Amino acid sequence: MRLSPEATKxxxxxxxxxxxxxxxxxxxxxxxxxxxxxxxxxxxxxNAFYVGSIHIINEKLFNGKKKEIERCNSWGExxxxxxxxxxxxxxxxxxxx
Length: 97
What we know:
It is built from 1 helix and 6 strands; from the N terminus they run E-E-E-E-H-E-E. It is mainly beta. It folds into 2 domains: 1-57, no CATH class; 59-89, no CATH class. The strands form 3 sheets. A two-stranded antiparallel sheet has the order 1-4. A hairpin with a 5-residue loop joins strand 5 and strand 6 (78-83). It is flat and about 60 Å long.
């Protein structure tokens, strides 16, 4: 999947949705465990995951509108810092450059 560099310059995210069969990224984990050291009875957990959508968004829009705040540094002095709200961030999304 290739997108033009112009896609990340827009203020509106571009979204691409996938079904499991067409997803460009698929993951699987298999965990085997037992309650006995000899593994007399094994319990297997097998999970499959895939990327269901990709949103092409510029970094400024992903970060959100920055605001200046005051924080204490490690010496207890007040310093100014920038904070971003990350409005598109959640437990199942992340930003890649």
